[in-house]
From TrEMBL:
PROSITE patterns cross-referenced by the UniProt entry: PEROXIDASE_2, PEROXIDASE_4
Signal peptide (from-to): 1-22
Site (Transition state stabilizer) residue list: 72
Residue ranges of domain Plant heme peroxidase family profile in the record: 127-314
Necessary cofactors: Ca(2+); heme b
Catalytic site: 76 (proton acceptor)
UniProt organism field: Psilocybe cubensis
The protein's name in its UniProt record: Peroxidase
Residues annotated to bind Ca(2+) 1: 77, 90, 92, 94
Family matches, as InterPro entries: Ccp1-like, Haem_peroxidase, Haem_peroxidase_sf, Ligninase, Ligninase_C, Peroxidases_AS
GO biological process: cellular response to oxidative stress; hydrogen peroxide catabolic process; response to reactive oxygen species
Length: 360
């Protein structure tokens, strides 16, 4: 049964990689011994790794916890970097290879689980930790409808040392400190907002340990712009037991949903509010900006001249074309608009009573 399902997945992957190849490259295709087509023979070795990831990490192609945490892991690995030096090797896989050190960092709460899940799968491959981890982020993200097909470059050397502590922003940090950390790693405020698109497929386990898997928006299995809307809605409650709150969270608009303090303050700050608002119901802008910022993130600290573009091994995500909507019972009157100079998009409201968002 499991074998039949895996064979089915491989067949679909084969078919889509052929058409993807034709659509995206002009170079002479290489047909791998496994039947897939790619722009560069060196990428052939990755197709079996992608199948392995799908079956052993992502429940056969789901946009679930494995996929979400693979994306978070790529950020926590890569941001261990400074354009001024001295803060780690960037997107080098050090968080996987030196997991015993990096999972102890305060901002890495809950990361031990995905490191434990990925390590035995990584060890079945010949990839370096950095190539494995950043390919897993691209493949996991591709399982989420609406996501961009992220770039994947092959050839990162093995990491030489763990990243130092205190390179990863925390939800209790101020906007100034978060933007300073992103700038130190080479990212503009707009790129920081673009990267936060990732919270559209996110949930928290450790912010409030009493309510694991509490999502940040009401559509955490879809890579849509709902997160940018819901973070702006007036807060009413905390999702924890008896309305209790934890450091790093602020009032959320929906029962069962968690709002990170950092997302909220970034949505309200004059340096970032307009770009945040522009993402709402603007799927194409959102995924193009996220894709570009992720391409930069996943290459931090790497010598790109030595890397091979294997983006065509990444599955093609299903598209998301619907207009996003206010959750039931909400309207524009509930929006905490922080960019009055731009028109706020006109959105419909889902019918019915205010929802309770289920854990993911
Ligand atoms: C200001 C910067 C950021 C802060 C303060 C932040 C903070 C957090 C926190 C506190 C969680 C919940 C952890 C838990 O309780 O389990 C989380 C989850 C997550 N974050 Fe971020 N984050 C930031 C930026 C990013 C970026 C840039 C990415 C990716 C490019 C990212 C991807 C994710 C994902 C995918 C999850 C969900 C993981 C899961 O559901 O297992 N975050 N983030």
């Amino acid at each position: 049964m499991a074998f039949t399902r895996l064979a089915g997945i491989i067949a679909i992957a084969l078919a889509s990689s052929h058409s993807a190849y034709a659509a995206t490259t002009g170079a002479k295709p290489v047909t791998c011994s496994t039947g897939q087509v790619t722009a560069n023979a060196a990428c052939c070795a990755l197709f079996p790794v992608v199948s392995l990831m799908q079956s052993q990490l992502f429940d056969n192609g789901e946009c679930g916890e494995g996929a979400h945490s693979a994306l978070r892991l790529s950020f926590h690995d890569a941001i261990g970097f400074s354009i001024h030096g001295g803060k780690g090797g960037g997107a080098d896989g050090s968080i996987l290879q030196f997991g015993d050190v990096e999972t102890q960092f305060h901002a890495n709460g809950g990361i031990d689980e995905i490191v434990d899940d990925q390590t035995p799968v990584w060890q079945q491959t010949n990839l370096t930790a950095g190539d494995f981890l950043h390919l897993a982020a691209a493949v996991g993200t591709a399982n989420c409808p609406g996501a961009p097909r992220l770039q994947f470059m092959l050839g990162r050397p093995a990491p030489v040392a763990p990243a130092p502590d205190l390179t990863i922003p925390e939800p209790t940090d101020s906007v100034t400190s978060i933007l300073a950390r992103f700038a130190d790693a080479g990212f503009s405020p707009r790129e920081a907002v673009a990267l936060l698109t990732s919270h559209t497929i996110a949930a928290a386990d450790v912010v409030d340990p009493a309510i694991p898997r509490t999502p940040f928006d009401s559509t955490s299995a879809t890579f849509d712009s709902q997160i940018f809307l819901e973070v702006l809605l007036k807060g009413r409650l905390f999702p924890g037991p008896n309305n209790s709150s934890q450091p790093g969270e602020v009032l959320s608009p929906l029962a069962g949903e968690m709002r990170l303090q950092s997302d909220f303050v970034i949505s309200q700050d004059s340096r970032t509010a307009c770009f945040w608002q522009q993402m709402i119901n603007n799927q194409q802008l959102m995924i193009s900006q996220f894709k570009a910022a992720m391409a930069k993130l996943q290459l931090l600290g790497q010598n790109t001249a030595h890397l091979i573009d294997c983006s065509d091994v990444v599955p093609i995500p299903r598209s998301f074309t619907q207009a996003i909507k206010y959750p039931a019972s909400f309207s524009q009157a509930d929006v905490q608009i922080a960019c009055p100079q731009l028109p706020f998009p006109s959105l419909a409201t889902v019918a019915g009573p205010a929802p309770t968002v289920a854990p993911v």
